[in-house]
Amino acid sequence: MKLAQGAEAIIERTERGVKKTRIQKAYRHPDLDATLRKSRTKREAKVLARLEDITPRILSQNEFEIELEYVDAPLVKDALTEENAKELGRAIGVVVKQMHEKGVVHHDLTTSNMFATNPITLIDFGLAQFSDSLEDRAVDLHVLKHALAAKHPDLAVWESFIAGHKPEAALLERLVAVEKRGRYKNKG
Ligand SMILES: Nc1ncnc2c1ncn2[C@@H]1O[C@H](COP(=O)(O)OP(=O)(O)O)[C@@H](O)[C@H]1O
Ligand SMILES: [Mg+2]
User: What is the residue-level pLDDT of the chain in tens, covering all 188 positions?
Assistant: First the structure.
């Protein structure tokens, strides 16, 4: 049974869990396409192994596929309400901090890539990197802040995220710099 189909991958239910298969892209040269799909699958598996406490367990893998433990919970995107926004926001802050402390940056932190479990479960590490850089971590925060503002404009999740994450001053300063750059870019 197909659970989800994104731009890059199909997620199907298996007997034991779910299988994420990176699909062929007709617009890419076949060799480049295969190389990209393999490297993203490998990257995702490597990062999942590093973050075992806050991600689904890997059950099996091959070049283009990863089979993961099924997470039996709603995505944060679907679970967020006015009542739980504070609590979930804090929990997201705690888990993103843990991820960064383990030297991983996600590069696509949105509420569609998190399950509302306790602690929060993170997924979708195809674009993630091993990095300790302030800049990379600030960009993660920037992406999440904008995803929250776009998808959940009526809920004050960001403030609770900050309370959970407790970013150091240097990281907050870098976030401000990243945001400034974003504004210049938009003005063209
Ligand atoms: N381990 C899992 N358990 C249950 N559902 C999952 C799991 N992994 C992914 N999904 C579902 O599939 C969707 C897409 O998975 P994701 O890894 O984010 O791929 P994509 O790159 O296509 O966004 C998720 O938003 C979620 O609904
Ligand atoms: Mg996703």
Answer: 999 998 889 999 999 999 999 999 999 999 999 999 999 999 999 999 999 999 999 999 999 999 999 999 999 999 999 999 999 999 999 999 999 999 999 999 999 999 999 999 999 999 999 999 999 999 999 999 999 999 999 999 999 999 999 999 999 999 999 999 977 766 55
């776009």: which residue's tokens? 150
The candidate with the shortest Cα–Cα distance to 160, out of 100, 102, 80, is: 80
pTM: 0.94
In the chain, the domains with their CATH numbers are: 2-69 (3.30.200.20), 76-187 (1.10.510.10)
Instruction: Output the CA–CA distances (angstroms, integers) from residue 185 to 31, 129, 146, 178, in the order listed.
Output: 33, 24, 15, 11
Please pick, among 72, 78, 108, 124, the residue that the annotation labels catalytic: 108
Ligand 2 centroid to 87 CA: how many Å? 22
